[in-house]
Structure prediction request, 227 residues.
Amino acid sequence: MTHRAIFLDKDGTLIDDVPYNVDPDQMRLAPKAGIALRRLARDYRLFVVSNQAGVAHGFFGEDALPAVEQRLRQLLAGEGIALDGFYYCPHHPSGADRRYRCRCTCRKPQPGMLLQAAGEHLLDLGQSWMIGDILDDIEAGRRAGCRAVLIDNGGETEWQMSELRQPEFVVADLDLAADRILASQPPPSNIPVIDPIGQQASLETGGNDHARRSMGRRPETAVRPAR
Ligand SMILES: [Mg+2]
Ligand SMILES: [Zn+2]
Prediction:
């Protein structure tokens, strides 16, 4: 039995964006996040997948992140919503802290966090969605074999488009994202999965086979589920 998932970017998507903020007191849920996620939670497991390059840049320690997760869970619990998982990437290729300076497979637009969640929670990526406020979120979702919705709220400023950065829908807020997702038909069975090094999975074996092989494999640089 596999589950469908909604992967949510955190900053600018699920909570109001305050750059590199890890102060739990400054965290506020994005407009309509509560109603949107309550609707989605009937059919989907909910996961946060968040780039936290502030760790690599030395802006805050990785030990600040459990309190962020805890506050997020508290805010969502206040709306009657339970998160199924919280994943973050603490890396950056030009980070100041050498322990976190690397080209990992978990930093979005790479799909490592989604693939790890799929392996740990038996998720059907082809039936799952990524929601984010920048095109790197869209690309991570598409590389994992998911469909993706862009919340166009000013987070994306560069608009570097490519085939993999094409969202299924572009909407103004999370509740409109929920409308579009819940009204969507299941995808065709052969959505190609794109692997982390950027090459298209072989189409003759079908994307889903590739996803299954990828699911159990940890990225070379481990993503840390913060619990
Ligand atoms: Mg964001
Ligand atoms: Zn990473």
Remarks:
- Residues 198-222 have pLDDT under 50 and may be disordered.
